[in-house]
Amino acid sequence: MSTKELYIGLLSGTSVDAVDAVVVNLAPPTPALIATHSQPIAGRLRAAILKLCGGSAIGLQELGETHIELGEVFAQASMNLLEITGIAAEEILAIGSHGQTVWHEPNGDKPFTLQIGDANTIAERTGITTVSDFRGRDIAAGGQGAPLAPLLHHNRFASAHVSRAIINIGGISNITFLSPKTSAIAFDSGPGNVLMDWWTAKHKGRNFDKNGSWAREGKVHEELLASLQQDAYFTRRAPKSTGRELFNGAWLEAALKSLNKSVTPVDVQATLAQLTISSLVNALEGHGDVEEVYVCGGGAHNQTLMEGLTKALAPKKVTTTEALGIHPDWVEAIAFAWIAKQTIEGTAVDTSAYTGARAPAVLGAIYQG
Ligand SMILES: Nc1ncnc2c1ncn2[C@@H]1O[C@H](COP(=O)(O)OP(=O)(O)OP(=O)(O)O)[C@@H](O)[C@H]1O
Ligand SMILES: [Mg+2]
Questions:
Q1: How far is it, in rounded angstroms, from Cα 127 to Cα 129?
Q2: Least buried of 121, 155, 172, 199, by fewest C-beta within 10 Å?
Q3: Residue 193: which domain range?
């Protein structure tokens, strides 16, 4: 049996902060992270992506050009990763490219999810077989299309003895419950960093609140928090998934307007951090048997979030996925490398407990290298 099955995983998430790129050895039994690279997304391209995510009317030319431009960035991220590591393109079995979600509408009359970042371009520039468009097949199979990373969480982080929750705090937060006794369950719990990022950009001119230090200076505004918590998403039953289509600046501004009280920007930030914490804690409380909680995603760097979760969930152990052997920054990118491997091997994956899909399916489309 070969001991090397190298795959690349590429991810640009809801935060549109960077392209996370990993080389991972997926030869059984345990995925091993070989190399990582974070490729910045230029301000102009980021603005074009955020415009698409904002749902404003734009021309097909702009959509097409952004799709191609992002495909070039994904290809470049892969090539930079290989250059850093000295690994030849021929050694990589495939790239799993999640793409950039610009719209996610799993509950409409005609459910769809749209990821851009042209995989033809990635395959052509790198010469590596590329798998992408994972979520569309899941939607076609009656699922939410998201979250999909729980497939890896289950494969990599489940224990035969203790029940665990894996929390990914990206732009949106998702939770995976892994119990030794019952089958895994997962769903998006609500906002992760996306609202805090938007508020920080608006008031501080920075893309995010480093370490959550601005949020820490503020005081939670209980009335605003209660009003934000009233959104029906929080009490909706799983399977459920969400994105910027719901949790965005306009959603926050509308709540602030209807509150009709002046709340200082720093207190709004503290309240948004608490919203992320409380929605995760409430979701966890619905699954009383969780013994250990592991956080991944950029939110693991936000000390205000981590301390708030630790305090609210005590005496449960709250730490990051580092304790389970994978640094929190790279779990999601590894997940898409892992799903690409399943696709290349023709293995149908069962997402029914995470997305509500009717039956297992081979996810994604393959672009030959
Ligand atoms: N040092 C830090 N302090 C506070 N927040 C951080 C720090 N580093 C990253 N973050 C937050 O994490 C976000 C990026 O997280 P991540 O890349 O996991 O999310 P994502 O790109 O939306 O991915 P996905 O949607 O797949 O979960 C940033 O936008 C920022 O809010
Ligand atoms: Mg990211």
A1: 7
A2: 155
A3: 150-324
